[in-house]
Design goal:
Radius of gyration: 21 Å
Helix content: 55-70%
Distance between the termini: 68 Å
Order of helices and strands: HHHHHHHHHHHHH
Strand content: under 5%
């Protein structure tokens, strides 16, 4: 075999090996994602960590998401930011958007409008609606190191709305509160939560959520997002997610940021109530978003 033929053979073998390794990494990633969505957090964490150590940006992003949501690990926003940064530096769009959101809110890291714009812009330029929404909100009034810029605000606001987000240039509604009728039910849910009975807690929060109580709707949204006491529903992207009952109800801006950082957008109108339980989480999310996060065509979060 001459040198040229040998060189070609080596290149072909290396290409085949690289393709096989890539397929294997994707298979491992898919298994870890399936474990995460199925609530098998230990398996998910182990799978993502193996890939993250090899520099896999998707795995790094999912480890950040687990840390942010306390999925099988202690909730650690700073740790989540660290994972998001590693993925974002490799060009992972969703990680860039979430990192920008954390800088905007100052959660898990010191607030920085300059860094919020930097990372949000990287994601928005690739069509990420949530990042565009954040940019529009920042440029609407400006912040430390970032002057207000109406043209930029309108530019990114148009992109955000084209992706299904509410108008970011409109004011936010007030903070959600419990209706008097639902307060006692919510307190009952808190007691189940504190004893670790997540299934009963979720059932109780569902009762007051179905009464139309915005704060309860946010809380049940948190259960569906994290899979605590109910089957996790990953389609619930524009979730009105509240913190666990042991903490106070989140402000609309924080709720909206959770929705925004997921990159999914908010529904402009409420869906009709579903008679099937599989559709109920999404219906709850839409009602909660409208009532408390302002995710409608006439108000913004």
């Amino acid at each position: 075999m001459n040198r040229r033929a040998l060189a070609i053979s080596v290149v072909v073998l290396l290409a085949l090996r690289a393709g096989a390794l890539a397929d294997n990494d994707q298979d491992q990633l898919n298994r870890a994602k399936a474990a995460l969505h199925g609530g098998r957090y230990a398996d998910a964490k182990a799978g993502f960590e193996r890939l993250a150590q090899q520099g896999n940006a998707d795995a790094q992003f999912y480890l950040g998401r687990m840390a942010a949501g306390g999925m099988g690990v202690p909730q650690d926003t700073a740790r989540a930011v660290s994972w998001y940064r590693l993925a974002a530096q490799q060009g992972h769009t969703e990680a860039q958007a979430r990192l920008g959101s954390h800088y905007l809110l100052g959660t898990g890291i010191a607030q920085s409008y300059v860094e919020a714009v930097r990372w949000s812009r990287l994601a928005a330029e690739k069509g990420h609606g949530g990042a565009a929404y954040n940019l529009a909100k920042i440029y609407r009034k400006g912040g430390e190191g970032v002057p207000a810029d109406q043209a930029e605000a309108e530019k990114w606001g148009k992109l955000a709305m084209a992706k299904g987000f509410p108008d970011p240039l409109k004011a936010s509604p007030g903070e959600p509160t419990h209706t008097p009728e639902a307060l006692d039910i919510f307190k009952e849910g808190q007691q189940y939560y504190k004893t670790g009975d997540m299934a009963r807690a979720a059932q109780v929060f569902r009762r007051c959520a179905d009464m139309g109580d915005a704060a309860c709707q946010l809380q049940i949204g948190w259960h569906y997002d994290t899979g605590k006491g109910v089957a996790r529903n990953d389609a619930e992207r524009c979730a009105g997610i509240a913190p666990p009952p042991s903490r106070s109800i989140a402000s609309p801006s924080l709720i909206s940021a959770t929705c925004i950082s997921s990159g999914a957008g908010c529904p402009r109108t409420a869906a009709p109530p579903s008679s099937g339980t599989r559709d109920r989480p999404l219906t709850t999310t839409r009602r909660a978003s409208m009532a408390s996060a302002g995710c409608t065509s006439s108000a913004s979060g």
